[in-house]
Design brief:
The complex is a heterotrimer of chains A (305), B (395) and C (280). By secondary structure, chain B is α+β, with helices and mostly antiparallel strands. In chain B, 24% of the residues lie in helices and 32% in strands. Chain B has two domains: 248 residues, 3-Layer(aba) Sandwich (Rossmann fold); 111 residues, OB fold (Dihydrolipoamide Acetyltransferase, E2P) (Beta Barrel), CATH 2.40.50. In chain B, the strands form four sheets. Chain B has a six-stranded mixed sheet, with helices on both faces. In chain B, strands 13-12-11-14-20-21 form a six-stranded antiparallel sheet. In chain B, strands 15-19-16-17-18 form a five-stranded antiparallel sheet, with no helix packed on it. Classes of the chains: A mainly alpha (305), B alpha+beta (395), C mainly alpha (280). Chains in contact: A-B, A-C, B-C.
Chain lengths: 305, 395, 280
């Protein structure tokens, strides 16, 4: 008996087929990854250490030269500072409003679909087009906002987008407007993932008020979602470009200059690609820093096993 | 046999404490989840609410807890009319099917929640700063002591500082139980707490829950779809179907004396045998022409017999053996009633002679245990037995 | 919260009012955008707070837009670019995601590590060298330049990997027992099952790339291959902020497609973003 089993010819060994298939299936993505992501990123990193300028014949390795220049560059310092302020305004506000909207929507049955659509509209609207709409809305002389303020008695309402005092604030407000819907949707998903029985248990345990239940059930269980939303929003805010490019081009007097816009200008207006690459690396470092922070926080209390 | 789902007025007065449900009705659109349901649980009594899924038992439990509100009807708990009060004000404790433990709190903190919610004011519960409010320290110490006591009674002493994610299913369930008993509630509600445990753990935990119930001494309403759980644990069993309570009685009465065909078929494993029967104008009950020796009012009937109440006999109901299942302490014989092709199950003792599959046999019934139901499924009382018995043996 | 019958309108009022107030605030740009696109310029300059135009100038404004800029060309470009990007993204990511999830092959963990690394790098980082490369290759101002850099979406690979991981292994085993070859399994079993994740990702991808200004601004010059986002920017620069009315009309026209698609398939959109967001 055992002889006949041993003598049976083995069929094709599936494991070889599996490994080969695995490699074959990954190769197209791998090639694209190499060409479009890995090599260019490596090139950027290398560029950052050169003085390459588009149009000039040769270029040299200058080590940390670009970064030294960055440290001295007042324009860059302003851009950096502005970006930090922008993120510092947009992230907390859009998160709070997004959470608030999600809680309000979730708290009742009426109008859920309607309000979800309304709040989410900015996310699917063409950013550039809406920026143009904001330009009209915030226009100092013909804009409805200032017209409204004038009816309230204000004689000289601010120049929202052309005054260096107000421009960053205005752009932040637009940023909040753009991000609220996105955060709301993420919070809604997090809220619906909370098991209903926990809310019931809190009720039975004596959590009468809305605040009690929020502290006992909602907020703790939203922990992972909140952390995720925080990171995502901060990264999205650091990447601000469209509104600046369309509305202010960094002005007036660099008052609204931000990291990516500076990077774009240095690279494609001034054609200083090496310098621009250095700025890109700073940008990358900030993003990586944020992600690292998120991973650290993840290790701690936010995920309950 | 009295039907206990609508207690006569006088009896109601005796049940002022515990849980009293009066005519609770709840509709979801076109579906009636609860149809004027009434039930009472005396203090210290363990009532199991059992029925197939969708019968409304969970809805009823939620209505008692105050998590849902009934469209009409009243609920009394511990002597108070709590209809309209929210769950937090009803002095009930509930154990949920999925335990519903707060995942971010330790077992100790989980158990303390009901006490903290009730004994500490909002300010005293304020994060970080609340500790410094006057009187907090004393109250927190008292709460901690109560938690340790409740946890100790459930054998949770060493596990108190773990989070639910670090506990096994059985341990989580104990934490849920501890959280429920720590408050000494007037009513104790349990929603299928054993369904998430594996079989062996279930049998062991059943006894423990009954133990806890006796210790706590509150009125306990226990919802389950498992009729074996209901029969073994409860003082009284309430069988529910399609939003109505069909019968409330002791486990023996539910098993031996069901008042409704649906109760008879739901309770008991293997399922009770049912055969179409008819009582002729003289009141003699026959099954496909074979006399049974039973007497009832004329009309179509259903004859129901438990597997242990049918015997092999030289003569009687004709059947054909389909198969045998050896269970160790008994043998289940599957057969088909030849004239009507109805499926039958008999429970035989292991020593009894076993027929072969395909064999033709005859079955005799135990008239003392035979159950008759009318065309509407209501239990029919047997009239006096005919003196003249046919040629087959009864046991 | 006590479930059961819907809360009365009175009890729900504060919530609804608050939501309505916030919603209205959020809708302000749209309301004024549409309103301005219907008004003649002199009315705009009067800066009245009337939403309804005194003189209906919609036809003039909108026709000016259609005359001055190749609206359909821009919209078509946007469609081609988004569809092209999505097509290649799915083409590369679905098989790779499946391979990473269900197949064992040498170097699998290394590849997944690269994927995770790629997630950290924003698309702006490779931009400069890619521009140089396309410039050298003479590919500036083409669909290729707009589509190629985004064909690799590590996010898509990650998403599909998570999704396929959740599919039961038995599905693949049963197919193997039925005699299907590995590639056949991908074609016959995996692709049809990838539908939910694919739609969720599709929505995410289309929204992101329809909106993109940064990259088209870098590689595109002139109108032939301009995307809607770029088109609006051109129009604005040309007008130098004078003819706001037609600018608003242009903004309305360019925003409308995606907004309409959204309103039509609202739930899908929201679910799509939420799924991709929470899985990612």
């Amino acid at each position: 008996m055992s002889d006949s089993i041993a003598a049976a010819p083995p069929r094709h060994r599936p494991l070889v087929g599996e490994a080969l298939a695995g490699l074959l299936l990954t190769v197209p993505a791998g090639i694209a990854y190499l060409l479009m992501l890995l090599l260019p990123t490596a090139a950027t990193i290398l560029l950052a250490f050169t003085d390459y300028e588009l149009g000039l014949p040769g270029f040299a390795w200058i080590g940390l030269g670009n970064f030294e220049e960055l440290l001295e560059d007042r324009g860059f310092a302003i851009a950096f500072r502005n970006t930090v302020i922008y993120v510092g305004l947009v992230a907390p506000l859009s998160i709070l409003l997004g959470l608030g909207a999600a809680l309000l929507i979730e708290a009742g049955i009426r109008g859920r679909a309607l309000f979800r659509a309304v709040f989410f509209l900015p996310v699917v609207s063409l950013t550039v087009a809406m920026a143009a709409a904001w330009q009209y809305l915030l226009h100092p002389t013909i804009g409805p906002l200032n017209a409204f303020l004038r009816t309230l008695g204000m004689t000289a309402p601010p120049f929202w987008l052309s005054s260096s005092d107000w421009v960053l604030l205005s752009l932040s407000a637009i940023g909040v407007w753009e991000n609220v819907g996105y955060n709301m949707v993420l919070f809604l998903a997090g809220l619906t993932a909370i098991p209903r029985e926990l809310h019931h248990a809190a009720e039975v345990d004596g959590a009468r008020g809305w605040l009690d239940r929020f502290r006992l059930v909602t907020w703790p269980l939203l922990g992972p979602t909140t952390l995720f939303v925080l990171t995502i929003t901060m990264i999205r805010s650091i990447r601000v470009f469209d509104t600046v490019a369309v509305l202010t081009q960094g002005g007036p007097n660099k008052a609204s200059e931000v990291l990516l816009h500076t990077m774009y200008k240095e690279g494609f207006t001034f054609l200083r690609l090496g310098y621009s690459a250095a700025i890109t690396l700073v940008f990358l470092a900030m993003v990586l820093g944020l992600v690292w922070l998120q991973t650290k926080a993840l290790d701690k209390r936010v995920h309950y096993g | 046999m009295l039907r206990c789902d609508n207690p006569p007025p006088g009896e109601g007065l005796l049940r002022v404490t515990g849980i009293v449900i009066e005519q609770a009705t709840r509709r979801f659109g076109n579906v009636t989840a609860l149809d004027a349901v009434s039930l009472s649980v005396a203090p210290g009594e363990f009532v199991a609410l059992v029925g197939p899924s969708g019968c409304g038992k969970t809805t009823l439990m939620r209505v008692v807890a105050g998590i849902e509100s009934a469209d009409s009807g009243r609920i009394r708990i511990g002597g108070r009319d709590v209809t309209g009060l929210r769950a937090a004000d009803r002095n009930v404790a509930m154990v949920f099917q999925s335990y519903a433990l707060y995942p971010h709190l330790t077992a100790r903190e989980n158990i303390a929640v009901p006490l903290a919610m009730r004994r500490l004011s909002g300010w005293q519960r304020f994060p970080l700063l609340g500790r410094f409010m006057p009187g907090t320290a004393l109250r927190r110490a008292a709460i901690a002591a109560d938690v340790v006591q409740a946890a100790g009674s459930l054998g949770l002493g060493e596990l108190l500082d773990r989070r639910p994610a670090q506990l096994s299913g059985g341990q989580r369930q104990r934490v849920a139980l501890a959280r429920a008993i720590v408050r000494h509630p007037a009513a104790f509600l349990m929603d299928e707490p054993l369904s998430n445990l594996d079989a062996a753990l279930r049998v062991q935990t059943r006894r423990e829950i009954v133990e806890i119930h006796r210790r706590v001494g509150a009125a306990t309403l226990y919802v389950t779809h498992d009729q074996a759980e209901a029969l073994t644990m409860a003082d009284r069993v309430a069988v529910m179907q399609a939003g109505r309570i069909l019968q409330v009685a002791s486990p023996e009465a539910i098993y031996l004396d069901p008042q409704d065909l649906r109760v008879a078929t739901f309770i008991g494993s293997p399922r009770i045998n049912t055969l179409d029967a008819i009582a002729d104008t003289a009141g003699r009950v026959e099954v496909s022409g074979v006399p049974t020796g039973l007497q009832a009012r004329p009309g179509p009937l259903t004859l129901a017999l438990r597997p242990e109440d049918l015997r092999l006999a030289p003569a009687g109901l004709p059947a054909r053996v389909e198969g045998l299942e050896f269970l160790g302490d008994s043998v289940l014989m599957h057969a088909r009633h030849t004239p009507s092709d109805a499926a039958l199950v008999l429970r035989l003792s292991p020593e009894a002679p076993r027929p072969e599959a395909g064999e033709g046999i005859h079955l005799a019934l135990d008239p003392a245990r035979a159950l008759l139901f009318d065309a509407a499924g209501r239990r029919v009382t047997l009239l006096d037995r005919i003196a003249h018995a046919p040629e087959w043996t009864h046991v | 919260m006590v479930e059961g019958s819907k809360r009365s309108w009175l009890a729900d009022a504060p919530r609804l009012l608050l939501l309505a107030a916030l919603g209205l605030l959020l809708l302000m740009p749209y309301i004024w955008m549409v309103s301005a696109s219907l008004k003649p310029l002199d009315e705009l300059f009067r800066a009245s707070l009337n939403l309804w135009p005194e003189r209906f100038h919609a036809i003039e404004n909108y026709s000016k837009v259609f005359n001055q800029i190749p609206v359909f060309q821009y919209l078509w470009n946007g469609l081609v670019v988004c569809a092209g990007i999505l097509f290649f993204q799915l083409l590369f990511a679905v098989p790779a995601g499946y391979a990473l999830a269900k197949l064992r092959f040498p170097g699998r963990d290394f590849v997944f590590g690269l994927v995770m690394l790629g997630l950290l790098v924003p698309p702006h980082v490779p931009a400069l060298p890619l521009y140089l490369a396309f410039s050298q290759a003479g590919l500036l101002n083409t669909y290729a330049a707009l589509i190629l850099p985004f064909t690799i979406s590590v996010f898509a690979i990650f998403l599909f990997r998570q999704f396929f991981k959740a599919l039961p292994d038995e599905l693949v085993h049963a197919a193997r027992l039925d005699g299907m070859g590995e590639i056949e399994i991908v074609w016959r079993v995996i692709l049809p099952n990838a539908w939910p994740a694919a739609t969720a990702f599709a929505i995410f991808s289309v929204v992101a790339h329809w909106n993109d200004l940064f990259w088209p601004l870098i590689v595109i010059e002139g109108q032939a291959r301009a995307t809607p986002a770029l088109g609006v920017l051109y129009f604005r620069s040309d007008e130098a902020g004078d003819d706001f009315a037609s600018l608003m009309a242009a903004a309305v026209i360019m925003t409308l497609p995606l907004v309409l698609a959204f309103l039509f398939a609202q739930r899908r959109f929201v679910e799509g973003i939420a799924t991709t967001g929470l899985k990612g």
